[in-house]
Amino acid sequence: MPIGNIDVPVIGKNVTIAVLVQGHILFAAFIIGAVLIAATSEYLGMVTKQPRYERFARNLARFVVLLFASGAALAITFVVALITLFPVFFSYLQNVFFWVFLVEAFMFLGQIIIVYAWYNVWDKLAYRKALHVVFGFVAGFLGLMAMTMIDAVASFMLTPSESAASDAASTFLNQTMVPLNMHRFVGNFGYAGFLIAGWAAWRYLRTTREDDREYYDWMGHFGLLWGFGFTMMQPVIGYGYLKGIRESAPAAFDTIMLGDKAWTFNLLMIWLTIMGIAGTAYFVHKLRFTVRPMPLLRKLAIGGLAFTALFSILNVIPANASLIPQIGLVFANGADTTIPLGSMYPWKYIGLIGLMLVGFFVIALYLKATASGFQWGRASRWSQYALIACAVTVVFTMITMGYTRETARRVDNEPGYLIYNCITLDQQLTPETCPVEGLAGGSDI
Asked: Name one GO molecular function term (predicted).
């Protein structure tokens, strides 16, 4: 059997890798974000002397420890599957990024050691709280460094550097490495925050004890601050990332923004709309329960909710009548029937920038009210359903973003690439189009 010609029955090797990678990312992104959120909460508990921060940090740390094994197992399974199913591709990738993979392995090992030590010495370092908080931040930092190494590889696959394959600096800092890393760094906090808020809402709806209702009400509020606040940064960061793709891999950019996969961007905007409206509605609701009544802030927040809906509509309007051609969801003359309000310029830009600015405005109002305090345990059921909707939607958002980025290299399968313009999906080298000197020829590797 030729090397690299192994396949997986029924689903195929492409789907196998996609499922393993996406599963691992869902675990890993939450772990990185949760560790840093927990460490921050522990620090706030140390400074403010409020026990809810300490309770939250310790419970979240315990959950991370339990979750770590599953995430690590998926990562190892993914690497084994990649080596087995795509050996030619992986051999080139390993030669180019050997030192990156090595550093990532040590960062991952260090994160495991520090995370388990951080949780296990919680009581022993109760009177040396500052040192214990440092443990948590170090664990989060090591996780971020491991993520950065992988982001260098992922960004190179879409936008390979126009230099020699042996040029470590250029391959690492390729054209989209920095915006992708920023996108994932911010995304980890937003993703973990929304999931924390959704879990708190679920617990709030099920508990009957008054003290637990107050705690889970506060926990939902705390999680949403992280989720909503960081997600509102994504439009401008995402624009920078898309700009890098457009300049370095124009055919890939056309695939996901103008081609048959353009529907993925509209789907992403639908998820962002749900999270934006649900999150803003939750803030408006909570402003009813401030310790000191703030009717003006609530009226301003209601106005912000209206503008959130308006800008969200601009974001979800498709550019043409070809919605999802893969399943036949096409109207009128399809791609030939343009929808003026669905064009990227200026309407999508207005929608994204407007959504971000309104989001920051609303969260600023909410933080101002937070300074005076809330009456915890009095939230309505529908507000908790809004938090759960955000938690479910952010998972779909992660999956959609991952699919969009990876499918960009397929260039509508004419041909599809594992490394853009360098190695095709069937592991064939394309030296005539590859910008990386030595990758296809092998002289510099």
From this structure: oxidoreductase activity
